[in-house]
């Protein structure tokens, strides 16, 4: 079997998910190639595996977004004419930012009409995808889990050493928000809840670490104000620095306004650091798969009580990661689904495959 993946390995530094998945798939003797516009037109493949189809629409240049999105769709049409099957893994129900609404509407309508099957990280995500995109109802589907990032980041460091390198206090609980700081991730909501909690007498430190979007930076800094127990590190985080933060953190918090999946949550679990996340059926599934207390939940708007309760509970977490999150098992399930989709005819009626 020959698979063209978009992306396959090139995003390893920013998100090792694809690298870990396709390394395990290659270990099964499957040929995996990196997607490219020229490649999809020049070569034949059995499976085209797409993760973030809106990639080209993220360009700040309208003409580039339109041209490359058109070429991407045209490439899929050519690949299908040559016998390829197209599989989409649902990372998001819709893009976090829509720069070109008309083009985006046309693109998604066309893309959903081209795919032959889709995978989801959980049953909850599958149901959400069906509710958002009814076209998927007639397509085969599978649950293929999201694994942890063991081996892709440095091992945990002694907390005292990590705290000294990061210049953060160790005499109180440390709450961590890390990763790209975008408006939809709601770092400001976390800062406001933290300030409310500390005004109530709870001693703690908050670190917001990661590159802040330019159009969101002033809002973040305004929320911090004169607080001396909040540290903002506006910088790209190298793996060893992320490892230090997660080694010293008491609790990670991801107060996203809208979220379906998040790689940062799996990275927190990789370091066995409890994360506080918005309650959702998807995250509740993964909380069960990663062990009691691995994920804690808040409902609706994050507040000081949620934060204080989570700090108290973080130390009681008991991580017991299910074999379902093993990359070899994930690769096996993924390839099994590829084989089922590749062997199915275009005239197939509704068929659901769960592996």
**Helix/strand/pairing category:** alpha/beta
Strand order of the largest sheet: 2-1-3-4-5-6
Q: How many separate helices?
A: 13
Please tell me the overall pLDDT.
94
User: Can you give the helix content as a percent range?
Assistant: 40-55%
Helix-strand layout with pairing:
Layout (H helix, E strand, L loop, with lengths): L1 E5 L10 H10 L4 E4 L2 H6 L4 E4 L11 H20 L3 E5 L11 H14 L2 E4 L2 H10 L8 E3 L15 H8 L7 E5 L8 H13 L5 E5 L4 H11 L5 E4 L5 H10 L2 E3 L9 H8 L4 E4 L2 H10 L4 E4 L5 H11 L12 H17 L12
Parallel strand pairs: 1-2, 1-3, 3-4, 4-5, 5-6, 7-8, 7-10, 8-9, 10-11, 11-12
Question: What can you see in these coordinates?
Answer:
The protein is an alpha/beta fold. Helix content is 42%, strand content 14%. The chain has helices at residues 17-26, 37-42, 62-81, 101-114, 123-132, 159-166, 187-199, 214-224, 239-248, 263-270, 281-290, 304-314, 327-343, and strands at 2-6, 31-34, 47-50, 85-89, 117-120, 141-143, 174-178, 205-209, 230-233, 251-253, 275-278, 295-298. α1 packs across α13 (327-343), α3 (62-81) packs parallel to α4 (101-114) and α7 packs across α12 (304-314). The radius of gyration is 21 Å and the shape is globular.
What is this entry, summarized?
With 355 residues, this protein is α/β, with parallel strands linked by helices. It is built from 13 helices and twelve strands.
Jot down its keywords.
six-stranded parallel β-sheet; alpha/beta; 13 helices; Rossmann fold; 12 strands; disordered C terminus; 355 residues; globular; 2 domains
């Amino acid at each position: 079997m020959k698979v063209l993946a978009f992306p396959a390995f090139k995003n390893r530094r920013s998100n090792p998910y694809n690298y870990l998945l396709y390394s395990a798939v290659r270990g099964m003797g499957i040929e995996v190639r990196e997607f490219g516009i020229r490649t999809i037109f020049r070569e034949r493949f059995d499976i085209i595996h797409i993760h973030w189809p809106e990639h080209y629409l993220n360009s700040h240049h309208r003409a580039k977004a339109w041209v490359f999105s058109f070429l991407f769709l045209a490439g899929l049409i050519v690949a299908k004419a040559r016998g390829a099957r197209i599989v989409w893994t649902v990372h998001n129900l819709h893009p976090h930012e829509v720069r070109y609404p008309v083009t985006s509407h046309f693109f998604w309508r066309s893309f959903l009409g081209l795919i032959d099957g889709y995978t989801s990280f959980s049953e909850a995500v599958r149901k959400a995808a069906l509710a958002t995109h009814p076209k998927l109802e007639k397509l085969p589907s599978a649950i293929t889990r999201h694994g942890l990032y063991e081996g892709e980041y440095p091992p945990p460091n002694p907390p005292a050493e990590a705290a000294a390198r990061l210049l953060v206090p160790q005499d109180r609980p440390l709450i961590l928000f890390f990763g790209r700081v975008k408006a939809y991730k709601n770092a400001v909501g976390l800062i406001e809840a933290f300030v409310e909690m500390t005004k109530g007498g709870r001693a703690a430190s908050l670190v917001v670490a990661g590159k802040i979007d330019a159009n969101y930076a002033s809002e973040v800094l305004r929320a911090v104000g004169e607080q001396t127990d909040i540290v903002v590190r506006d910088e790209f985080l190298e793996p060893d620095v992320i490892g230090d933060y997660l080694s010293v953190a008491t609790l990670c918090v991801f107060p996203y306004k809208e979220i379906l999946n998040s790689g940062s949550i799996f990275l927190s679990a990789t370091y066995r650091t409890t994360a506080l996340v918005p309650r959702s059926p998807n995250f509740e599934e993964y909380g069960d798969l990663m062990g009691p207390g691995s994920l804690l939940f808040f409902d609706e708007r994050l507040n000081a009580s949620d934060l204080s309760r989570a700090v108290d509970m973080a130390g009681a977490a008991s991580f017991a990661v299910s074999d379902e999150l093993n990359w070899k098992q994930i690769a096996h399930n993924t390839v099994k689904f590829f084989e089922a989709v590749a062997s199915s005819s275009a005239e197939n009626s509704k068929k659901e495959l769960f592996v």
